[in-house]
Amino acid sequence: MYFDTASLTYDARGLIPAIAQDAHSGEVLMMAWMNADAVALTLQTGRVTYWSRSRQAFWIKGETSGHTQRLIELRVDCDRDCLLLKIEQVGPACHTNRRSCFYTVVEEGGEKVVMAPEAD
Amino acid sequence: MYFDTASLTYDARGLIPAIAQDAHSGEVLMMAWMNADAVALTLQTGRVTYWSRSRQAFWIKGETSGHTQRLIELRVDCDRDCLLLKIEQVGPACHTNRRSCFYTVVEEGGEKVVMAPEAD
């Protein structure tokens, strides 16, 4: 799919935040970053591809773990500086093997982990 | 509610991204930024308070528009560098008067606006 990635607004590092949401359940699974080429690759391949800030390399989600993300729909926000990816997630999205990276609730008296790691 | 805001990871500007999700429908409404004090204020008051990068000031969501966000639950992600806010949204979340800022779908042949502004 052709899309003018230059129409998006990137930060000083050339990155834009991308929120991954389960296309069916609506659960927010993770947030990671893309550069313009990662956006283009994601749209071209349908496989969600982030930019790894630590490795400074493309991060084809699930390439090593098998926990891939298939793009169902990509949305841009009003300021064109954030992306919402509606996806189909294979297995857990989080590197801790949990469905979502947002498994810790801040509450009175401390924090509570509300999600268990999935079985391998 | 006491929470050690220094336990979060902020970027070079001292900010952390915060995703606002409708606590009931699961719809992702917007993404904005908080600094440590905005996180503390949000937890103390239950009124979602961001940090405005353009104004360099607290942004108590809805203070002028009336379109407030009441915090239901705050979650941190595995890396502690992103927040997920489950909220109750009064009126539209977006400054365009739409329910969500993510009203534009990127698709073959262009972009499609899938949400109309709400009536005043």
Automatic annotation (TrEMBL), chains A, B:
Task: Name the residues that bind Mg(2+).
Answer: 77, 79, 81
Q: Where is the Phosphoribosyl-AMP cyclohydrolase domain?
A: 30-103
Cofactor descriptive note: Binds 1 Mg(2+) ion per subunit.
Reply yes or no: does the keyword RNA-binding apply.
no
Q: Tell me the pathway.
A: Amino-acid biosynthesis; L-histidine biosynthesis; L-histidine from 5-phospho-alpha-D-ribose 1-diphosphate: step 3/9; Amino-acid biosynthesis; L-histidine biosynthesis; L-histidine from 5-phospho-alpha-D-ribose 1-diphosphate: step 2/9
> So what EC number does this one have?
3.5.4.19
| The protein's required cofactors | Mg(2+); Zn(2+)
Keywords for the protein's UniProt record, in alphabetical order: Amino-acid biosynthesis, Cytoplasm, Histidine biosynthesis, Hydrolase, Magnesium, Metal-binding, Zinc
Q: How does it assemble?
A: Homodimer.
Q: Which family does it belong to?
A: In the N-terminal section; belongs to the PRA-CH family.
Q: What is this protein called?
A: Phosphoribosyl-AMP cyclohydrolase
Organism in which the protein naturally occurs: Roseovarius nanhaiticus
